[in-house]
Amino acid sequence: xxxxxxxxxxxxxxxxxxxxxxxxxxxxxxxxxxxxxxxxxxxxxxxxxxxxxxxxxxxxxxxxxxxxxxxxxxxxxxxxxxxxxxxxxxxxxxxxxxxxxxxxxxxxxxxxxxxxxxxxxxxxxxxxxxxxxxxxxxxxxxxxxxxxxxxxxxxxxxxxxxxxxxxxxxxxxxxxxxxxxxxxxxxxxxxxxxxxxxx
Length: 199
Known about the structure:
The chain is of the alpha/beta class.
């Protein structure tokens, strides 16, 4: 039964202000946007996020008919070490949905898959630390490949992912990508069977 499983949703990103609004933080920021969208929905409740400023993760336990759903938003940890921290929260009954930036996918596109990009340091951290301790891993990729990357950063991926997202692209992400992510996550929450059998 799906009720016997616990769903955790996280998003990859780094702390401290210099990483905010960069391509590499888009997974974490998408999850924050989703969390904010839940505030207006009476079927959900969670504690004030400001009370968790010093925590490794901002933890949001959703009040829903399927009660075993938790958002873990990285707070004071870097993505290349996230797997070692996630291990404290998971067991073989958990399904983990991870949102992250993917350079192989065009900007404004998302993809849900059981197969991640293994060159991503945050993805590797989760795989190396959590793969054999969890029921199922599902990855939600957000495309970040733009003409800026293909024209100027082809040999400098690290430099590209740590640049601030230009305003034109940021506007597209807010209007197109975040609503898609919100819809996907709401679907998983409303129908957790998707997490077990849909992907």
